[in-house]
Amino acid sequence: MSSPTSVSSAAGLPVALLQLNPTVGDLAGNVRRIAEAARAAHAAGARVAVAPELALCGYPPEDLLLRPAFLDACETALGELAAALADLGDLHVVVGHPRDLRRELAGHPGHVRTRSWALQGCLNMASVLHGGEVIASYAKRELPNYQVFDERRYFVSGRDAGLAPVVIEVGGRRLGLLICEDAWFDEPADAAQAAGADALLVLNASPFHLGKPAEREGRMADLARRTGLPLLYAHLVGAQDEVAFDGASFAVDAQGVLAARAPMFEDANLLVNLLPGGAVSGPVVELPELEAQAWGALVTGVRDYIGKNGFPGALIGLSGGIDSALVLAIAVDAIGAERIRTVMMPSPYTAEISWVDARDMADRLQVRHDEISIVPMFDAFRATLDPLFEGRPEDATEENIQARIRGTLLMALSNKFGAIVLTTGNKSEMATGYCTLYGDMAGGYAVIKDVAKTLVYRLAEWRNRQGDAPVIPERIITRPPSAELRPDQTDQDSLPPYEVLDAILAMYMEEDRSLEQIVAAGYAAADVERVTRLIKFNEYKRRQAPIGLRITHRGFGRDWRYPITSKFRA
Fold first, then answer.
1. With 60 as the cut, is the pLDDT of residue 92 above it?
2. Can you say whether the dihedral through the CA atoms of 21, 25, 303, 305 is positive or negative?
3. Mutual angle of helices 498-505 and 453-464, in 10-degree steps
4. Which of 74, 104, 122, 140 is catalytic?
5. Residue 308 annotated to the active site
6. pLDDT above 60: residue 337
7. Residue 569: pLDDT band by 50, 70, 90 thresholds?
8. Whole-angstrom Cα distance, residue 122 to residue 71?
9. CA-CA distance, 414 to 461, in Å (whole number)?
10. Are 539 and 563 in contact (CB under 8 A)?
11. In whole angstroms, what is the distance from residue 301 CA to residue 448 CA?
C-alpha cells in the first residue's frame, strides 16, 4: 500500500480515501485490511476514513447475497470491525457492506412498509463506525442493471425501502453519503444536500474498462459543479474473476476541479484536506496512457485470479507467436518468472523461426521452458482415424487435432503440478471462432479474451518500450500471424485484415450498430456480413471458453448474453 502523507487539520477536515483490494467472502481478512488502512490513515492525521463499496465482503459477491448465512456473517464482521477501531476515538470510518433488509427495517419500528416486495432481499449499505459502534447507515438508492451490473437481482433501493438520506457531522462539516451509482444520478445528491450536506463522500466499486477513469471523473466533476459541493470518491482496487477495479480514488472541489488522485491498480490511502469554501487539497497522481491502463488491468486480473484462488503458478503454451508472447509478458509482470512454466509443442508445420523466437522469449524473461514435439502423437491420431476418414481430404479436422493434443498436454501438466493454464486467444479470435474447442481454448483463465488483435500489437510494442530492453522479440511482433496448423498458413487466409475485423467487431458488439450502419461507415458489405455471421455462429464456443478479464466497454462474458440458438440475423 502507498504510504499515507500526514495532513494538517488546522484549516480543514482531513479525510482518507482507503483504496483497498478485498477478497470476496474473506470477511476476517477484509476486516483486517480495512482496520490496518484506517489505523494508518488515523496516524497520518485523518479524522474520517472512507472504505469502498461492499469492501467488507468484497465485490461483487453475486449469489452469496442470497444466502442468509452470508448476510449474518457480514453483520458479525461489521461488529468486529467497529470493535477493532473502538480505541480511535476521534476517527469516523465509513465502510460498505450488505445488510438483510428485514434486519434494517427492524431497526426502524415506525417505518411504513408501502411495498410488500421490498421486504425481500438486502440493502447495499454504507455504515459509519465511531467509538466501537455503528452510529449511522445509508442504503444505496440507484441500482445499476446494465453491462456487468446485476444489482436488482440482489438489492432493494434505499429509496424504495423508505430509508432516508444520511448526513454525518464531523469536525464541523456535514458529510452526505452516496454509493457509486447514486452519484451518476441527481436525486441522491440532491436529497443529501437537502438534508444539510456541505460535502459528498462516495463509496465505489466501479469495474474498469478503457476510458472509464476519465468518464468517471467527468461525471463527478459535473455533479460537484451542479450542487456546489466538493466530492470525495473512494474506489476499490484489484480484480474479481472477470472484472478489475482500477483505484484512482480522487477528490474534486465545489467547482468540479480535480484536487487529488490516487495511483491506479495499487492499494493506497489518499489523504485529502476538506477546506472551507468548498476547496479541497491533496496529492495528484497523473493518469497513465491508455496502454499502461490496459496493462495494469491485465496484470491485476492475472495476479488476483491466481493469488486469490491459491494456484502455485501458471502454464502457458508458448508458440513463438504474438498472442502467447503477450500473455507470457503479462503473467511475468503479474506473478514473477519463477512461478511460470512455458511449453513449446511443435507440429510438422511449425516454422524453425517459431522455435527460435519462443526460446528467445523464454530466455529474456527467465522462465522455465520445455519443448514437446507433438509429431508422434499427431501421426498416431491420423493413423487411427485414416480408416474412418478414407476418401476425404485433410481439412480443419486435422488442424484441430493438433490444437487438442496441445491442450491435452498442458492440462496434464496442470493436473500433475497444480499450475493453472493461461489460454492465449484474443478477442478477435474469440469473436470469429478462430480457435479450437478443447484445444487452444483449454485452460483456466483467458488473459487476453477482451483484447482485440490490433490492441495486442499496441500492448506488445508498449511493453517493449518499458525498462532497459525489449521483452518480446521484434520478429514476433513484425511477423505475419499464423496458427501454423497447415503449410504456409496465415490468419488472413481465413479472416479479413485485423484492422477491418476489429473495427467491425467494435461497432457491432460494443456499439450495437446495425449491419447497414457499419457498411455506411465505409466497410465492405461482404466483410461486414462475414464478420457478423461468424460472431453469431460461434456463440456456442464462447459459452465453453474460460473466463477472462474484461477491459473494454463490452466483453464476452458477464455483459454479453446472446442466445446460442437464434434465427435473428440482423
1. yes
2. negative
3. 110
4. 140
5. no
6. yes
7. confident
8. 8
9. 30
10. yes
11. 10
Side-chain-side CA neighbours of residue 547 (13 Å): 15
Q: Which 8-state DSSP code applies to residue 519?
A: H
Cell reading at 222: 459535473
Whole-angstrom Cα distance, residue 4 to residue 2? Answer: 6
Dmax over CA atoms of the chain, in Å, equals: 88
* pTM for the whole structure: 0.94
Give the three cell numbers for residue 332. Answer: 511475468
Residues composing the chain: 570
Cβ contact 56:69 at 8 Å: no
Query: For the segment 432-451, what is each residue's pLDDT rounded down to a tens digit?
Result: 999 999 999 999 999 999 99
Backbone φ/ψ region at 80: left (φ over 0), alpha (ψ -120 to 50), beta: alpha
Separation of alpha carbons 449 and 442, rounded Å: 13
pLDDT at position 5, please?
A: 52
Complete DSSP assignment for 555-568: -SSTT----SS---
Q: How many C-beta atoms lie closer than 10 Å to residue 44's C-beta?
A: 16
Query: Which single residue is written with the C-alpha cell 520445455?
Result: 370
**Hunting for cell 448465512 — which residue is that?**
69
- The closest of 54, 22, 26 to 124, measured between CA atoms, is 54
Distance CA 287, CA 264 (A): 8
Active-site residue, selected from the candidate residues 53, 142, 242, 266: 53
Handedness of CA 20, 25, 26, 31 (dihedral sign): positive
Residue type, 126: A
Please check the confidence at residue 228 and state whether its pLDDT lies above 90. Answer: yes
Q: Are strands 340-344 and 314-317 parallel, antiparallel or unpaired?
A: parallel
Instruction: Please give the Cα distance from 196 to 254 (Å, whole number).
Output: 15
Whether residue 461 has pLDDT greater than 50: yes
- CA nearest to 452, candidates 321, 554, 540: 554
140 as an active site residue: the answer is yes
- Lookup result for grid cell 487452444: 440
Alpha helix (H) residue ranges in 465-538: 474-478, 498-505, 515-520, 525-537
The Cα 350–Cα 483 span in angstroms is: 9
The yes-or-no answer on residue 53 being catalytic is: yes
Q: How far apart are CA 137 and CA 391, in angstroms?
A: 74
From residue 465, alpha-carbon distances to 151, 215, 363, 364, 421 in Å are 41, 27, 18, 15, 27
pLDDT of residue 106: 75
Output the nine-digit C-alpha cell for 528: 461486414
Cell of 174: 456535514
Q: How many CB atoms lie within 10 A of CB 1?
A: 16
Residue of 57, 74, 122, 180 with catalytic role:
180
The label of the residue with cell 433501493 reads 157
> What is the distance between the alpha carbons of residues 196 and 231, in angstroms, rounded to a whole number?
15
pLDDT in tens, 21-39: 999 999 999 999 999 999 9
Cell matching residue 20: 483497498
